[in-house]
Amino acid sequence: MLDNLKFITYDQTIIRRLAEMPGFVPYQHRNNNYAGFCKYGKLMRFDFRKSFENGIFAGYHHLEISISPHYHYNNYLHNGNDFPPQICIETVSDMLRYVSVKPDEMDTLKVVNIEFGLNLIPETNIQNLITNILFSKKTPFIIPKKENGFFKITNATAYKQIKAYAKGLQFTDFPQYGINANTFRFEVKSKKSVNIKKYGIDTIADLLKIDIYRRLGQELLNEWENVLLTTSTPDLSTLKPSDVLFVQKANKKDFWTGLIGEFHRDKFAREKAKYYKILTGKNNLHTQIKGQIIDKLLQFENVAYFPQKTPINSGKDKNAKLHLKEINGQFATNEENNRLCLVTGLDISMQKKTSKYLCFAGLKYYKENDPETYKEIELKYLTLKMKTRPIKDQIYYIAHNIRNHKTNPNHNPRNSRERFEKRHYPKQQLQFNFN
């Protein structure tokens, strides 16, 4: 669901750390007061706001981080496939680790820009569909670039944009990605934190909560309700003459433009409702797309669909073990693919379904595929005495200590005694104090 994110931090520890991160190249920011660095063709950007004292550079006031989770999931090749909430959460977590943001630092990263949407494959021709998308409420959709006639956008408010475009046409020259040429993208972009907070999102930590994605899905459905989509060639054979005349007039944009103004407060909405009521079944493209949005959201709610990722090269996939469930588009329940260790908070989807804690299999995976994360685990859960042991023994003791971190507080003598007394000496029972 998530396409682009921007978050801001004033934490100087994070700013200094990311200012020294290798692999990013400088680019010319549109504002000279910023120092910009990017990677993956600007799909990942660090924009540092310069601070000056008496005209002398004094460091960075804040940092704006821009990322593209959907592209990251597909190795920065495309964003034309499904991107369910469970995978969004895993991908955002992976990207935060990639840019060295620690779990206890997430609350310092305020979300200030978010784009979220769905990819659908309508039954009608995508070009006709985009052509006939006319308004969001009373705000017209426009084509910002003439060379891209099947990309429309509207400024719904000062802080929100609605996008509707032919996603499949962007990738017709890349059949290897397997993107249907008729793919339709419907998207919402919120540009201010004041509106983003209405979705329940304040910091990047909120985007790791599954309930947030349900709210975003409902927001997409709400915004689609505001869209006016006409049907250019409806079947009018079963309609009475007055309805035929109305539909023919309503299929022209000028008809709707004429309903906008102070003298037609509610008439636009009434006429839109009338238009949709007359056109039923296959004649009503708007209702068809609405049904597809609902179906997609229910699919995301009940099961996580894992499409095959697009590899950058034909070499060994370093994440092969993590993505075993993606092969051949297998289905897996939400609980199976949104599992985190109860102690470390790390992803344990590579372990058995019944796993609650990071164990031998997961630790071995992190050691082979994410050595930085493994090093952090090792520093916290492996004693100096055990570092002299063979690797297998080290992993065993780390897993043992992680589990004990959760279970020991529940089984220590004090808690055991409290449970014993509660079981055998209830408060209502007569007791003698011998002290």
Percent of residues in helices comes to: 25-40%
Number of helices: 15
State the strand order across the main sheet.
2-3-4-5-1-6-11-10-9
Q: Could you give the count of β-strands?
A: 14
The major pleated sheet works out as: 9 strands, antiparallel
Order of helices and strands: EHEEEEHHEHEEEEEHHEHHHHEEHHHHH
Beta-strand percentage range: 15-25%
| End-to-end Cα distance | 65 Å
Overall mean pLDDT stands at 84
Radius of gyration: 27 Å
Estimate the global geometry from the Cα principal axes: globular
User: Which structural category do the helix and sheet elements fall into?
Assistant: alpha+beta
Short description:
This protein is of the alpha+beta class. The chain has helices at 12-19, 69-73, 85-98, 126-131, 193-196, 210-225, 241-250, 253-257, 267-278, 285-302, 334-337, 360-369, 371-381, 391-411, 413-424; strands spanning 2-9, 25-27, 34-39, 44-53, 56-67, 110-120, 133-136, 139-140, 151-157, 160-165, 184-190, 227-229, 303-305, 331-333. Residues 303-337 have low confidence and may be disordered.
Structural description of this entry:
It is a single chain. A nine-stranded antiparallel β-sheet has the order 2-3-4-5-1-6-11-10-9. Strands 8-7-12 form a three-stranded antiparallel β-sheet. Strands 13-14 form a two-stranded antiparallel sheet. α6 runs antiparallel to α10 and α12 crosses α13. The longest helix is centred in the C-terminal third of the chain and has 21 residues, at 391-411. Residues 303-337 have low confidence and may be disordered. It starts with a strand and ends in an 11-residue tail after the last helix. The protein is globular and about 90 Å long. The protein has helices at 12-19, 69-73, 85-98, 126-131, 193-196, 210-225, 241-250, 253-257, 267-278, 285-302, 334-337, 360-369, 371-381, 391-411, 413-424; strands at residues 2-9, 25-27, 34-39, 44-53, 56-67, 110-120, 133-136, 139-140, 151-157, 160-165, 184-190, 227-229, 303-305, 331-333. It is 36% helix and 20% strand. It has 435 residues and is of the alpha+beta class.
